[in-house]
Amino acid sequence: MLRRKLFRASLLLALLLITCLSYSQEKIISGRVTDSLGVGIPGVNVTVKGGREGAQTGPDGTYRFAVPSNVTTLLFSSIGYATTEVNISGKNSVDVQMVNTSSSLGEVVVVGYGTQRRREVTGAVSRVSSEKLNAIPVPSFEAALQGKAPGVQVIQGNGLAGSGSVIRIRGVGSISASADPLYVIDGIPIVSDPFLRGNSGAMNQNPLSSLNPADIESVEILKDAGATGIYGSRGANGVILITTKRGRTGKASFSYANKLGISNYAIKPSFVNGQEWLQLREEAWINSGHTGLAPLPGSLTWAEASANNTDWWDLLTRTGFINEHNLSMNAGTSKLKTFANLTYGEDQGYIKANSYDRLSARLNVDYKPIDILKVSLTTGYNRGVNKRVPAAWDGGIGDAMSSALPIYTPYNVIGTYVTTTANPIRRINETHRREVDNRFLGGVTIELQPIKNLFLKGAGSLEYRNAVDDQYETYLWQQKSDPDSGYAKRYPYWGTNWTTTFTANYIWDAGENHKFNFLVGQEDQSVSLKEYTSEIGQWYGNPFWDNKNTKSSYEHLRHDLLRNGLMEERQKDAWTFTSFFARINYNYKSRYFLQLTGRADGSSKFGTNNKYGFFPAASAAWNISDEKFLKGIKWISFLKLRASYGIVGNANIPSGVYYDNYQRGGNDYNGAPTLYLNNLGNPDLKWETMKNADAGLEFAILNNRVTGEVAYYHKVSTDILLSPGISPSATGLGDIWRNLTNSEILNEGMEFSLNLKIIDQDKFKWSIGGNIAKNHNEVLKYELGPDAVSGGTNDTRIVEGYPIGVNYLVRYYGVDPSDGLPIWLDKDGKQTKTFSLDHRVYAGSVLPDYVGGVNTSLEYGNFELSALLTFVIGGNLYENSGKYQFLGVSKKNWNFREDFLDRWTKPGDVAQYPKLLYDAAEYPGVPSEDQFNSTMFLRDADYLRLRELSLSYTFPRASLVKVKLKGLRLFLTGSNLLTFTKFPGGDPEITRDFENPQDRNLSPNITYLTAPTQKTIVFGLNVNF
Amino acid sequence: MKRSLFIFLPVIAAIILASGCKKFLEKPPQGQLTEEEALKDEAGILTFLNGEYTLIGDADFLGGRVQSISDMLADQLNGSRFTGDFAEIFKRQNSIFGGTRDALYKKGYRIINVANIVLNKLSLISDANKNNVKGQALFCRALAHFELVRIFAQPWGYTSDNAHNGIPLRTEIVVGSIQRASVKEVYDQVIADLKEAETLLPDALAAGKYYTATKWAAKAYLAKVYFQMNDFANAYSYADQVIASNKFTLDNTYDKRYSPGMSTEGIFTIANEVNRYMPGAELRGNYRSDKGIPTLNFTDQFYNYAISRAADVRKVWYSNTLQSGYNVLTKYNKDYFDLPIAHLTEIKLIRAESGAEIASSNASALSTAITDINSILTRAYGGTSNNLASNASAALVISTTRTERELELIGEGSRYNEIKRIGARSGTNIDRRGSVWNCNGFILQFPKSEQDAFSAFIMNPEGGCF
Questions:
Q1: Testing the interface with B: which of A296, A506, A662 to mutate, by most B Cβ within 10 A?
Q2: Cβ proximity of A947 and A147 under 8 Å
Q3: Which of A549, A724, A1017, B74 has its CA 20 to 30 A from that of B337?
Q4: What is the pLDDT of residue A338?
């Protein structure tokens, strides 16, 4: 009802406008100018042939202006595109598709609150298209960005299904605040916090896995202040803009895609078997000066232990199956365009019982009832079901690398589970867990062009999430006899993210050479997530997710708990932003471009004394190739110099930490209520400030056969957000969030990308492309001690003068051949045989020097062979679990890795590792095995990986006519097929489970029983009809 | 005109929105209060102070962490299976990192911080309650400083003027770093706080239970503090005042001290409320032996010593069969209990030993001492057969009291403080593991975070005990 009224009102409004703007001897002509992909091209000059009247297309490629009624031809011109003439006699609406003449330089890229043509962009923006994104099956779309954009480091998630990657755009400039980029989907900044479920089960819930890669049209990565300045306090870490597919003009067409394949681990670490473990145990026992047989863990006798030789890894893993189906529909007229998509997929991991299943639907509709009004509906729903398994420190596959020894066995002789020693088989069989993440993202956008060159836009959107963590422990896990006495429990959270955006965009041509584009806007965002105060659990014979009955008994239980006051809803997280922004683009002779942006952000996350921040940025570009002095040089097709400088912020502060945390106690004491101070707030808390400078040169030479870009950036973060580092005796409380005075972190680097079309013939094409980026990270100013900040439980630190997350370790020199004891280096580099934490120095960095990728594509006829290699050069890996694996045969009782066999056994031995001992504290000076951190376990992080390899065949159109198909393509794709590395511990690409954002900043490349990444081989089919 | 209207439309809209967004930008976290809200009146402050007792009985502090760490540093436990933090502490080589130790340290200072905040807000307390509130805060502050200084600093008497490094002394709210005070300064403050508390606190509580601080709690702690300082005259005097009050009586059996509400010995006790707040979690967590192998169990040497007296009814506190191959304690094999922080048994032991120590100048003190130790002996050995003669020598009273103290207070963290106290008193090393009482590693290291926040912070030297 309401909708109809609104519609009528807007219709009326539109009619009114038309009347008051029209003149009798003129007619209004309108339409939309698109590129070959159907993306609207902004800034196209539309002029009357032989006349002075004209207009420019708006942000979405639409134009509308009055022309004398006798005009018959319009000229559409734009640099980078062939000028197009269109006859308009008898027409009031003309849509034009323009042909791109200068490869990628003419493409339209999405920027914040609009689009710009590549050649006019003054900021640093990388674009990754849908095809590139969907080349391989990935646990989550962001993993597919790896190697495809310069300066974007992607450490793909570990081998758990649905796991998330760590993305760093041009380095890390934060310590406690998250350095993750801002994710914006179709204009909506989404909730992308990976810590909403903490580190439960040794895996961070990945909020991005609930975005369907098949929905994505393009991903734009905004890197410098010129591009991210419009996002103000949230622009410092870069912004990833995700644009979903929309309908295009044309008859209804359908597309079906299917992927079928298998998954396994890329590389795994190797451990000794049962017999070897026992021999090594005895060796350690004797080395420690004992006699007789060494004691064994779990009260096992030597005879019992010798009888077992369990390969736990083998028992816990499998070949996983991948099965994805995707059906999409596209239909469009000049008034109504629709895109719809349905996806079902089941991606099994290589760990038994682990999978990520997706059910996803999308409907994007654009409706243009009248020329000056466009209403767009964007809706997407995704249900991700992650069948979880425990990992790392939580057991399961982690146990297979740690405490589940080969001398243990999963079953007793009578066939029941062994419960006295680590038993990941029992764990994986008798505990079940599924995390369901429902995400609905929908919005309505109304665009209105009331007068020529003015574009008004209002958008309202809602992101709704409902996430359920469902767990079940069977009666066997609970060690009960009644099969009904399992335990079912559920932890839901749910909530909304409302965003409203208003923008006004005015294009002003001040004479032939001066063109302006003004944008002002206002945006509000309010995020609120809720949860219950307790778990919802009961003794039960089935998991809650099993069937109708179990679901209803969950509902009853929940209802009872709420009604009886045993549980209530509470706020899990809530924050708001209110923002005002403006952008001015000035273009002189289509050669010189200047852009100024400014944004004022207010947020509920900021302290009461700092509610608003202002973030200005300026950027400019110069298209040198359009200058007269270069016109004569034929081999230069395009040359653009750009530069930007701006102040952007990082507002990734947990909500509410500026506020004192006094809370009423849950329990009375001595019959009276209690009250606690849990933490102190900070009314001065504010965003982190980053001064971000960028300069770049974009080029296309030899008739666009060679294109590329060189960029330099210099970013300095100040007012660094820090939560730890307060004297523990000051309040005895937790950490206090504050902006560290006199703190600075530098990220400075170069990026280089190059694409070569080596052979470019009709039948035979061969291209090679690649990018490499170097980042120099340095903590310039920092006054706290080296151990004030650490990455979770990992041994990474912040030290002035060194990169973020340095490995601060005792240096291991080698083994003394005479007695097999380790030789260390003290602070001054002098050899010593006594270990001390005082010997620790800066010994390495977890941040790489260079990251990048090389791709190549060979097309012959209808065949295409393509490959992507990704690489990391420089930096270190630290094996936090390696030290325990080396001490495996000591009383730590862990699995012992095969590469540690290179150890001292007798005088004169020259070995990599010292002699084995029964207790780590017997190595002189070692306080306990927990402190046995040294460069003994620090490795080179270099690797080269065959990330993607794909062979495809596209059937010729002619051959498909008979079967009434428009297109058919078959392909075979592999991911992570080959890895070249010196790392002895398995997979060199490590995203472990993190405790918090600080851990995530400081401890990439730290492994702790991290499951290796997946390797997949997939057969696929795309049909268009 | 109409054109400009459209241009300004968004601007107008923005202004309207902006005016409404002041509230929009305020999202105080649900359930969280600021200090102004939480401590705005007397009721708020009383509620805050009431929470203080649960912090004292918290697992990280006197709910077991203080006792467990003290016992690990001492010489009764079998540490051969310890790993990580426990192994470091046991080996008297505690290093700069260690969550077990850090949590204890922070909890102690959290208790002190609560006390300081309450002391800062006294102006909001009515006259009728002011003394009581102030007294409780001072008592809690002293208690926490005292427990911390015993674990993190060399004992009183380590240097003749006690100018050696103590712990940060926090008597004001400073959200920043401060240097360690000397041991003398810490003890002076602890005594000053307790003495002031003694004058301010009530004589008895309405319900007759000693679940919050009273005058007697302050006096009992003064006895403990002076005894730790080997100041026997003062220790005797304060222990005597507590005992002479006749408000506390020895339990008729040895096993009631850790029980839900059955003990009459508690001078200062943290109250248990079943299924709500149950103090002493870490005592049960580390020592409890009926549900599995406990983390803390005894050496054969100590076990054999502890069960060597045939008539000792307290032998049932030990078992080597409950968990085969482990010498375990059964004292805490309960689901819950009231947690006595200062109790009559200990105060009697203090008066007994102090009385004997000052016998040369105070003859009646010796006979009081003999009475005290005999009351303990009678209960322990099921009769008077092991009692001392009424003319027993001071030396015999002292040695007997020390033996009984170790047996009576097993699992309560007492032995460690005795090794340090006796070492400081006479230079005698009683440690069964052979360390010198004042070796560097015989105290805990400070959390490294103190030094990271304040580079001048003086850390303890480490190791050197074996």
A1: A662
A2: yes
A3: B74
A4: 95
**CA B154 and chain centroid, separation:** 17
Instruction: List beta partners, residue B116.
Output: none
**Which pLDDT value is given to residue A79?**
66
**A 529-588 near B (Cβ less than 8 A):** 570-571, 574-576, 578, 580
Contacts of A36 (CB under 8 A, 6+ apart): A97, A99, A100
Nearest Cα residue to B154 out of B458, B362, B466, B400: B458
Which three-class secondary structure state does DSSP give residue A112?
coil
CB of B423 closer than 8 Å to CB of B371:
no
Residues of A (983-1002) whose Cβ lies below 8 Å from B: none
- The dihedral over CA atoms of B258, B260, B262, B263, expressed in degrees to the nearest 10, equals 40
Closest alpha carbon to B150 in B61, B79, B237: B61
Rounded Cα–Cα distance for residues A940 and A874 (Å): 7
User: For residues B340 and B263, is the Cβ–Cβ distance under 8 A?
Assistant: yes
Determine the Cα–Cα distance for residues A447 and A71; give it in Å rounded to an integer.
28
Q: Which residues of chain A have pLDDT under 70?
A: 1-25, 37, 79-80, 100-106, 791-794
Give the residue from B83, B133, B444 with the most A CB atoms within 10 Å of its CB, the best one to mutate: B83
Q: Pairing relation of β-strands A706-718 and A688-701?
A: antiparallel
Contact B203, B214 (CB under 8 A): yes
Query: What 3-state DSSP class applies to A762?
Result: coil
**pLDDT band (50, 70, 90) for residue B1:** very low
Q: How far apart are CA B240 and CA B369, in angstroms?
A: 10
Burial class (CB in 10 A: 0-12, 13-18, 19+), B320: middle
Structure token digits, residue B61? 């502090």
Environment class of A626 (CB within 10 Å of its CB; exposed 0-12, middle 13-18, buried 19+)? middle
User: Cβ–Cβ of A726/B91 closer than 8 Å?
Assistant: no
pLDDT at A631: 80
| Tokens 């710009």, residue located | A116
pLDDT digits (tens, 9 = 90+) for B11-25: 555 555 555 556 888
ipTM for the predicted complex: 0.93
- Asked whether the beta carbons of B223 and B235 are under 8 A apart, the reply is yes
Pairing of strands A320-332, A250-265: antiparallel
